């Protein structure tokens, strides 16, 4: 299986209890499956800015995808999935604290990486946009005003 990664670097995330504005991993082809293997978050702010970032399944149909650059672990392999942000209707999940994982941190040099255990990866199943289980997103519930955050994801197909 091939692995892929994408990141949002140097962004100013908007805090929301439901919007997942940092990134969304999507599988659109029925029968395709991706496994989220690793997530990361961090900041380089020059002052203390409290953050709370969460990952959850998307529960709406976001509009106007803006593709993030995806890197493959092996040359010549093209991902079936995509990693996007949305400039129209934002991706949304159940209101915080519902979701897959949530982390409080400080964006003045704070951050972390979570490697999901073998067999405990988050699965994304292919289907039309808005289909349950075909998207997992990342967003902040706290942290507006920060200007240098980074969020990453690695998945396997």
Structural account:
This protein is mainly beta and 157 residues long. The chain is built from no helices and 12 strands. Strands 1, 3, 6, 9, 10 and 12 form a 6-stranded antiparallel beta sheet that branches. It has a 6-stranded antiparallel beta sheet with strand order 5-7-2-11-4-8, with no helix packed on it. The N and C termini lie close together (6 Å). 34% of the residues are buried.
Strand-helix topology:
Layout: E1 3-11, E2 23-26, E3 33-44, E4 50-57, E5 65-67, E6 71-72, E7 82-86, E8 101-106, E9 108-115, E10 122-125, E11 135-142, E12 149-156
Antiparallel strand pairs: 1-6, 1-12, 2-7, 2-11, 3-9, 3-10, 3-12, 4-8, 4-11, 5-7
What's the helical proportion of residues? under 10%
Over all CA atoms, what is the radius of gyration? 15 Å
Instruction: Round the mean pLDDT to the nearest integer and report it.
Output: 92
Shape: globular
Give a short account of the largest sheet.
6 strands, antiparallel
How much β-strand is present in the residues? over 45%
- Given helix and strand content, the structural type is mainly beta
Model regions low in confidence, pLDDT < 50 over at least 5 residues = none
Distance N terminus to C terminus? 6 Å
Give the ordered list of helices and strands: EEEEEEEEEEEE
- Please provide the count of β strands: 12
Number of helices: 0
């Amino acid at each position: 299986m091939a692995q892929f990664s994408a990141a949002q670097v140097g962004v100013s995330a908007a805090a929301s209890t439901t919007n997942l504005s940092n990134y969304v991993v999507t599988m659109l082809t029925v029968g395709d499956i991706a496994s989220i293997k690793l997530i990361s978050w961090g900041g380089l702010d020059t002052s203390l800015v409290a953050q709370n970032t969460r990952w959850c399944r998307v529960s709406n149909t976001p509009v106007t995808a803006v593709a993030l650059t995806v890197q493959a672990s092996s040359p010549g392999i093209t991902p079936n999935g995509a990693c996007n942000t949305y400039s129209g209707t934002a991706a949304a999940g159940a209101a915080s604290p519902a979701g897959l994982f949530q982390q409080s941190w400080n964006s003045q040099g704070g951050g972390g990486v979570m490697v999901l255990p073998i067999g405990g990866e988050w699965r994304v199943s292919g289907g039309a946009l808005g289909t349950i289980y075909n998207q997992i997103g990342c967003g902040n519930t706290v942290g507006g005003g920060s200007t240098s955050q980074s969020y990453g994801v690695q998945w396997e197909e």
